[in-house]
Amino acid sequence: MIPLIGELLTSGSPGQMVAGVLLLGGGAIFAVCAVALSLIDLEEHRLPNRIVYPWAGITAILLVLITFLLGDGPGLGRALASGLLWGLGFLLIKLIYPPSLGMGDVKLVVVLGLYAGFLGWETLAAAVVLSFLLGGLTSVALLVTGRAQRKTRVPFGPFLILGTALALIFS
Q1: What domain range is 82 assigned to?
Q2: Is the pTM of this model over 0.90?
Q3: How far is Cα 129 from Cα 136, in angstroms, rounded to an integer?
Q4: For residue 52, which of 12, 19, 39, 113 sits 20 to 30 Å off, Cα-Cα?
Q5: What is the Cα–Cα distance from 121 to 106, expressed in whole angstroms?
Q6: Comparing C-alpha atoms, which of 79, 52, 83 is closest to residue 63?
Q7: CA-CA distance, 10 to 165, in Å (whole number)?
Q8: Please, what is the angle between helix 121-144 and helix 157-169, to 10°?
Q9: First to last CA, the chain
Q10: Among positive and negative, which fits the CA dihedral 155, 159, 160, 161?
Q11: Domain tally, the chain
Q12: Which candidate, 12, 16, 14, 49, places its Cα nearest to that of 33?
């Protein structure tokens, strides 16, 4: 994402420059919401709707504006499809085995899917893989060191956020 923002900001085109500024704003909003949600999830094992819902709405509005400025209809469609697919996938997991995920995780991945999907299917795939990899490795480390038991609840939100952030930064 960083190269894309750099290209847009230095393009000389007013529309592209505004799109770059909007992407920077979206990144700042991502950072603020990500830190708040991660801290809350680590402390309370929940992801409050009062943060997730406004974040989703602001993200959708930003992506529509950026799409309008860049004329990238497929990017917006991919973002919407990614958020929906990741959210439905997590909802299915939640319905099959309810203790596996919280509904906050299901809602969170819709927002994260919007961000990742806008940049491409590869970015979405990287976000999903990195999220599970980071969460899994941390859980194994906690088990091996005796800091967790097999039934210990480990909040997944911070790993979803970190995995997506890494995918966005390096895409």
Answers
A1: 2-169
A2: yes
A3: 10
A4: 19
A5: 19
A6: 79
A7: 23
A8: 140
A9: 6
A10: positive
A11: 1
A12: 49
Length of the chain counted residue by residue: 171
- What angle is formed at CA 107 by the lines to CA 22 and CA 90, rounded to 5 degrees? 120
Contacts of 157 (CB under 8 A, 6+ apart): 37, 38, 41, 47, 104, 105, 108
* Chain CA centroid to CA 83, Å: 9
Residue 77 token pair:
């469609």
Give the side-chain half-sphere CA count within 13 A for 15. 8
Could you tell me which of 156, 44, 159, 169 has the C-alpha nearest to residue 105? 156
Helix or strand run (H / E) with residue 161: helix 157-169
